[in-house]
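As described in the Methods, two query proteins were run sequentially through the folding procedure within a single session, without resetting any intermediate state between them. The first query and its resulting structure tokens are shown here.
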Amino acid sequence: MTLRMNRSSGRSLWQSAALGLAILATLFVLAGCNQPSLPSATSLLAAAAQHFNDAKTFHFVMTSDHLGPKQTGSPTLSDLSAADGDVQRPDRLSANGTVDLGGITVSTKLIIVGQRAWFLNPLTGNFDEEDDYAGFVGIFDPAKGLGIAITSLRNLSLPSDGSSNGTPCWKISGDVDTATLGSLLGEAANPAKPPRATICIGKTDGRLYSVVITGQLVTGDLDNTTRTFVLSKYDAPVNIQPPA
């Protein structure tokens, strides 16, 4: 038996197929239009920096991995491998930390008030003054610290989904500006190769919750040296005083 299809029925089938494809294409376009657009990385970083610099107090946890050999001279970030403490603006810090004291790594407590600094001597149980450590609080200085550094990042990635201690955030990566790095760390900075920073900014409040810096931040660092700062407890009551 031979099946025959007249011209009108053939046109009808083609028209139906074309209509179906048009409907599908329209649905895809509408679906794309309904997708929320990503926020601007630049605007997210600017808002996070403003929130961070406006905060009067906050808690921080710093961890370091793959640190290079200790350098001689004044203390730098390479001497501090871990810290857990509080910052009270403009220039006070109190933290428990792990510090390299001339080749000996010890757990101690560090207190900074203005240009003065003390660390708890593990041998005597007393606080010894070592003002060279006072520069560590500069990492959080609103005029030249993390808040300024994150707005100077280069080669920014698009924001992506992330989290910090369970807080949903926008994750953004970029190269740390070497000029900003030099302003923050002075002669200790290693501007030969910009390190890479990954920032986590709260989706609901725009606050800075973590900063991960990978690469050569100060002299002696390695390409895989990593420092992670986790921030929390913004504007919680803090009262940092010199040791008694």
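Immediately afterward, the second query was submitted; its sequence and tokens are:
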Amino acid sequence: MKTSSLNRRSALFGAALALPVALQSGTAAEAAEGKGKGKGKEGEGPIHHALRELKAVKLHLEKAPHDFGGHKVQALKDVNAAHASLEKALEFEAKKGA
């Protein structure tokens, strides 16, 4: 059971580190422009989904009992940077749609 918890934390940590790269991919760019699947009413699009996922990753990292060899601080910075970028994308979309 302890191994399962460690694997889960390792996966979350890896996802947090990979997220900024993934957000720069073509799929994320399409999502930011509203071209991706799942664009619905406000709060249901892919950017909103990503923001919710980032919040969950951040909470898991903050609650982690150790610092992953010093990488936890950088991972949290990356999560915060990704969150800020997604918020800017939403602002852009709001201005573009107005």
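The CA atoms of residues 55 and 77 lie 13 Å apart. We note this only descriptively and draw no conclusion about the first query from it.
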